[in-house]
Amino acid sequence: ELYRQLERDDSSQELEHATNLLAAAASSGRPALLQQAEQTIRAREQQSSGAGDLYELAYNASCLYLAAGNFDAAMEQVDRALQVCRAEMSEEDFRDEGAILLAHRAYLLH
What are the E-state strand segments in 1-110? Predict the structure, then answer.
């Protein structure tokens, strides 16, 4: 509920709040938070550019889907995160951030 309140009070940080909500939901394992976070993912994905295009949000969404046992959706989101990361980062930054994403992807393939 705290993240929802933050979104209402400060829309300039909406993307960061959504990303943090997904991270909290993924780590909590609480079904109610997972449902709220899935709704956030769907809402952000409907925006053609913005929150759904940032790799942090896609990575956290992948973690959320992994926690929920939805491996296909988790793979789709980590692939999206990799695509955005490659497009937006320098080669050096991608090596650091991309390594995390590639490790997550490898786990999903296992």
Answer: none
